[in-house]
Amino acid sequence: MNVKYSLLGVVAILALLGAGCTQSISLNNNANGNSQKQIDTQKTLGVGSKVFAEWKDKTWYHGTVNNTCEQGFNILFDDGNQKCVSQDQVFFDKSPNVEDVKVGTKVIAKWTGIAYYDAEVIKIIGDKYTVRYYDGMERDVTLSEMVLDTRTQVRGGEEAEKGKVVVGDFKVGDKVVAEWVSADALYSAEIIGNCEKGVNVRYYDEKEKCLAENQLLADVAPTTRQEVGTKVLVRDSNTNNFFAGEITKVGGEGYEIKYNAYGKEETKDFEPENVRVDNRK
After folding, report:
1. Are 204 and 168 found together in one domain?
2. Which own/partner pairs from 246-253 qualify as long-range (CB within 8 Å, at least 24 positions apart)?
3. Greatest pairwise CA separation for the chain in angstroms
4. Phi/psi of residue 247, each to 5°?
5. Residues 148 and 188 placed together within one structural domain of the fold
């Protein structure tokens, strides 16, 4: 295609370049481009935009776009550090509307301090939103402490399968505690589909494994008081590792639990959020 430029047009372009205009890119737009709601809310990311950007995998911090770069945008974080990030590693600093947040909504949510992490809304009571972070930890946050993870709007594959029943009560996308090498040491994981044995899971460290239904359980803390003698899994030191044990004492808000970690038997007190009822059959 032949295109002719007028002298006036060329002069105008050169004037813009001389004025220091920088690249701006449409952000958080649906790949299909047919959602009127998204068209209405579409924004343009450019120098000066206040954002949250991914500093490392699933970990986000607040900053400002101060230039473009090879991958997309150069971010000046509030603490003075800088990083070049791609378009899917940066979101506008904008709290979601109430109607946009439901159980199952993907967000990045504040933990403590200034860090935000990949999370999913699992419960809503009034203006309190309970989120479960990618590592299985849970916390109550407000709308102002969340940003919508709009990457899910353009993902296909596994994301499109979310909610599909795999086996029993388990569905694609469910957070679970799953066996790895033994039945006594389990790890945080997510169901990503079916497999020959029953359930294909991806662990928190991105490793995958095919498991039978009785090799995993829902990663949900019990909502009722448990009794002495109940078989449980405990998360020691708030890691992604769970170990098989038994409640030996009930007191206060928590439990005394005897468990075996890497061949060593220990007895410790645990808060309810670090306990899972071991209902594997």
Report:
1. yes
2. 250/225, 250/226
3. 86
4. -70, 125
5. no
Domain that holds residue 266: 231-277
Q: Supply the DSSP symbol for 279.
A: -
- What are 107-124's pLDDT values in tens digits? 999 998 899 999 999 999
- Residue among 50, 86, 60, 82 at smallest CA distance from 71: 86
**Dist. CA 201–CA 178, nearest whole Å:** 8
Indicate if 204 and 250 belong to the same structural domain: no
Averaged pLDDT for residues 88-101: 91
Pair 205, 241 in one domain:
no
> In angstroms, rounded to a whole number, what is the distance separating the alpha carbons of residues 18 and 269?
66
Q: What is the CATH number of the domain that holds 248?
A: 2.30.30
Please count the structural domains in the chain: 3
Average pLDDT (58-73) is: 92
CB 96 within 8 A of CB 109: no
Tens digits of residue pLDDT in 123-178:
999 899 999 998 889 999 999 999 999 875 434 445 545 666 767 778 888 899 99
Cα separation, 195 vs 210, in Å, equals: 6
Q: What is the CATH number of the domain that holds 149?
A: 2.30.30.140
Q: Report d(CA 213, CA 231) in Å as an integer.
A: 18
243 within some domain: yes
